[in-house]
Amino acid sequence: MPELMTENELIDFLRIPEVSKAKDRRYAIENLRRMHDLPCVHICRKPLYPLKSVLEWIQQQVEKEKR
After folding, report:
1. Residue ranges with strand state E in the chain
2. Cα of 2 vs its chain's centroid, Å
3. SS3 1
4. What is the pLDDT of residues 38-63, one digit of tens each?
5. Rounded distance, CA 4 to CA 24, Å?
6. Would the pTM count as exceeding 0.85?
7. Backbone angles phi, psi at 24, to 5 degrees
């Protein structure tokens, strides 16, 4: 997995097609960014997702679920 993932790579990484009923998978990612603080950086106006930050974000979500 690259250090910076594209939106399509992130969709595959998070297995969005398996867990979301949204027809446009980008809506699911947008929701995670807006409502759940999914980490993202923009380079040349394109959203990229740092793998390390995404993994840390996943761990934070797991910790929240445990409470």
Report:
1. 4-5, 41-43, 46-50
2. 14
3. coil
4. 999 999 999 999 999 999 999 999 99
5. 22
6. yes
7. -100, 105
